[in-house]
Design brief:
Order of helices and strands of chain A: EEEEEEEEEEE
Largest sheet of chain B: 6 strands, mixed
Oligomer: heterodimer
Order of helices and strands of chain B: EEEEEEEEEEE
Radius of gyration of chain A: 14 Å
Distance between the termini of chain A: 35 Å
Shape of chain A: globular
Number of helices of chain B: 0
Number of strands of chain A: 11
Strand content of chain B: over 45%
Shape of chain B: globular
Chain lengths: 116, 112
């Protein structure tokens, strides 16, 4: 297992179209996270899974966004009816995690979304 | 909203010099982490320092944490051109499940 994989690396879509991104975490990691990053800013938290359960979802995530992690393995992030403001780098990360135990995250290379 | 603020926003140094960047945060934390990001790539975890630690070293990296001032610093010694990247601090609030909250980062350019 060489790390966190994200697909695709780049996506250009027309406004109003739906897009779906995939993340394959490190297999031993029970936690998976999605972040969004715009130019010149730090990553902003979107959502978090512990195994297959989605335990927190940011207020940044409108109803157009949905994420899943079936069977606690890979995850998908779907954006419906894309808007130009959705243009950003979408980062996936994974880590081990237990209550009150904290570890660094391993990030994927990201999916850069451009909405035209 | 972002928890940490890095200072400076940008730093330009020559190879061999030391680079120091600072991070301030607002809440009580369990730990603070530093990450590096090369242009257009994902973030790489550098070091984690817990709230009961004051200093930590990893290779050419030295991190300090002052919880009374809610601040941390990252020192890169004997910098190399390959250290050119953006550096982010991120905090985990006390009693949280472990969510990382990032600052806006410091962009470091190391010229040969």
């Amino acid at each position: 297992d060489t790390g966190v994989s994200q697909d695709p690396r780049h996506k250009i879509t027309k406004r109003g179209q739906n897009v779906t991104f995939r993340c394959d975490p490190i297999s031993e990691h029970n936690r998976l996270y999605w972040y969004r990053q715009t130019l010149g800013q730090g990553p902003e938290f979107l959502t978090y899974f512990q195994n297959e359960a989605q335990l927190e979802k940011s207020r940044l995530l409108s109803d157009r966004f949905s994420a899943e992690r079936p069977k606690g393995s890979f995850s998908t992030l779907e954006i419906q009816r894309t808007e130009q403001g959705d243009s950003a780098m979408y980062l996936c990360a994974s880590s081990l995690g237990e209550k009150q135990s904290y570890y660094g995250y391993t990030f994927g290379s990201g999916t850069r979304l451009t909405v035209v | 909203s972002q928890q940490g603020e890095e200072d400076p926003q940008a730093l330009s140094i020559q190879e061999g010099e030391n680079a120091t960047m600072n991070c301030s945060y607002k809440t009580s934390i369990n730990n603070l982490q530093w990450y590096r990001q090369n242009s257009g790539r994902g973030l790489v975890h550098l070091i984690l320092i817990r709230s009961n630690e004051r200093e930590k070293h990893s290779g050419r990296l030295r991190v300090t944490l002052d919880t009374s001032k809610k601040s941390s610093s990252l020192l890169i010694t004997a910098s190399r051109a390959a250290d050119t990247a953006s550096y982010f601090c991120a905090t985990v609030e006390v009693d949280s499940w472990g969510k990382l909250q990032f600052g806006a980062g410091t962009q470091v350019v190391v010229t040969p």
